[in-house]
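Sequence in, structure out.
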Amino acid sequence: MTDSKHPGPVDLAAIAAGIERTNELLTRVLAEVATTPSTHAVFVDAGYVYAAAGRLVTGTEDRRAFELDAEGIIEAFIDKARMIFPDSRLLRVYWYDGARRRIHTTEQQSIAELPDVKVRLGNLNAHNQQKGVDSLIRSDLESLARHRAISDAVLIGGDEDLVSAVEAAQGYGARVHLWGIEAGGGRNQAEPLLWEVDSQRTFDLEFCKPYVTRRAAYESSFGEVIHHGPAPSRDDVRFVGAQVAAQWLGSRGRDSLAELLPGHPYLPGGVDQELLVEAEALLGLSLRGHADLRRALRDGFWDHLRTQY
């Protein structure tokens, strides 16, 4: 029996062999890591791109008023990522958009057929607002980061709801880079999102201009053909407000009018948004940066409704 206070001689040869095996294993692991390329993916909120690029180039966010060369701008995003991440390979571009009942439009089908592009669809409500897109972005971004499928994520969007997606990806070690489109006289990306990401980049008018083309005319949701012209006056906008009010009253009925009148001069959020969208379609102009014209629009809306009660 060996006395624990007086152990036998140490086997230095065995220890040395163990250290050598460990070093060989570490060398193989480091070599594999060194030869494994970094991977990046691009996550595009299409609604943001359409609205921001349309507003910057044509002055309106209404998709019916302009055409976006989606294939061209996607290729431009890919080229820019290739320059910024020269030692990284592209996994794919994720293009998030909305569609009624999540059924691809003809344009979305064409985008889905592009190489290295995956179209992911949220729903589109009655006011043409995307629903469920942010959750799709978070799910994909978090899953890819968790499985170490990407080392860098390019996020093109501006909604504050994307902050949780950024935090989730960063928690798994991925770096998230926020790209945006220039906003004249302000920001079109939430500040908490800007604070959370690892880097930021903004594309200007010269970058976006080749991919956005104003339509000479387009059809509004009322079936009227809208032609672009000079900026409208307050009286013009007030008249359009009355037009929208007549359409609204015809489709909703007098019971809805009775519910609306006690709130004068304020409109419920849903009605106000509907008024703005329809008026912009009729005018062929975005009113988002024209507070005085928006007030004139609401005045015209109320003028018509109050004459009908």
